[in-house]
Design a protein that fits this description.
By secondary structure, the protein is mainly beta. It has no helices and 28 strands. The chain has 3 domains: about 130 residues, Immunoglobulin-like, CATH 2.60.40; about 70 residues, Sandwich (Immunoglobulin-like); about 90 residues, Immunoglobulins (Immunoglobulin-like). The protein is about 0% helix and about 55% strand.
């Protein structure tokens, strides 16, 4: 996202005839020293944002207006819970027309937007520019002394700067075989990607979402939180695979005995009714304990490929969070003495 730092001005309104019947009018208004994109003004995250409000007024330059007192004010504000929150109010008087004429000099006032005016949960407020003036001895049609109503000029959105938002963080299992609940800190727009036919996503409220597996589908889905081009991902493996690794040699030769293989569960995981197996009836196997498996290869093991050896698959199966679960890996049975073709 391209965000510019504008040291001249971003306008609320530009010089034009607004079509108001008022004799004293706000002709242009804007802000300096602000970060913005398009017409959106960006505020800092969790910190105050300093900027400068500037504006130009106009009044008739002919008698009797040229000799009448001018007193008024312009302000920027927004609504929160149906209450007006004023960010800055700047007065104007005859002194702002030092050379006479129709247009005032540029009137400026520094101000600071407080921290947390916009937040992750409320990332945008619409700030309005308005003005009013005090009528005193004015000619028709403004013969009644007193303050005018507040006249509306324009509105600009003030938004949370997307380059300063806190990252979404995810809490929950990185795999699921049925359904799992995830908590997201600083969630934005939350979706489940790459999930067609694999899993669905349900919002539970309170920053929690549930991922539900579809049937026996297998795949990796992405729990995603996005905000204004910022993307935060959490991959989730959907399957009935046991969580852990099978360690041991990648290849063993004919005649090798007592080769050990170990299953190492992921931290916090444990399984019951564990059984090991291998998809070859010619190997001699022993389950030492639930996470240890021993394989011996007879010297006369029948190889299909007497040069490179044959692949077999080792399985570990158990009862777990989703019923019967398994993990497997490939083991190569090598010839004691390779036969060259």
């Amino acid at each position: 996202m391209e965000i510019r730092r504008f040291f001249i001005a971003i306008l609320f309104i530009s010089l034009c005839n607004l079509g108001f019947g008022q004799r004293i009018r706000l002709e242009s208004a804007g802000l300096t020293n602000v970060s913005f994109k398009g017409n959106v003004i960006f505020l800092k995250y969790n910190a105050p944002t300093a900027m400068r409000f500037y504006f130009m007024m106009s009044k008739p330059a002919i008698a009797p207006w040229s000799g009448l007192p001018v007193k008024g004010e312009a302000k920027l504000f927004y609504y929160k819970d149906n209450q007006e929150v004023v960010l800055v109010t700047a007065p104007f008087t005859n002194a702002d027309w030092p050379s006479g004429g129709t247009f005032s000099q540029m009137i400026q006032k520094d101000f600071t937007v407080p921290a947390n005016t916009v937040t992750v949960s409320n990332p945008v407020v619409d700030v309005q520019a308005r003005w009013r003036y005090y009528k005193e001895g004015y000619p028709d049609p403004e013969t009644t002394n007193g303050w005018t109503e507040w006249y509306y000029a324009s509105t600009r959105p003030f938004a949370l700067n997307p380059d300063e938002i806190p990252a979404s963080s995810f809490s929950g299992s990185n795999s699921t075989c049925g359904e799992s609940v995830y908590t997201i800190t600083n969630p934005y727009k939350v979706t489940l990607e790459n999930a067609a036919g694999i899993a669905t996503l349900t919002s539970l409220g309170n920053n929690q979402w549930k991922v539900i597996r579809i049937g026996n589908a297998v795949g990796t889905v992405i729990l995603r939180s996005t905000y204004e081009g910022k993307v935060f991902n959490y991959p989730i493996e959907v399957s009935s695979e046991m969580k852990g690794t099978i360690d041991g040699p990648v290849g063993i030769k004919q005649g090798w005995n007592d080769n050990y293989f170990y299953f190492k569960p992921e931290p916090g995981m444990d399984y019951t009714n564990v059984n090991w197996s291998v998809d070859s009836p010619h190997l001699i196997t022993t389950q030492v304990d639930k996470y240890t498996f021993k394989i011996s290869v007879p010297t006369n093991y029948p190889l299909m490929d007497k040069g490179r050896g044959d692949d077999v698959e080792i399985y570990i199966r158990s009862n777990g969070e989703c019923g019967v679960m398994e993990k497997s890996r490939i083991l190569r049975i090598l010839p004691a003495r390779p036969i060259k073709n």
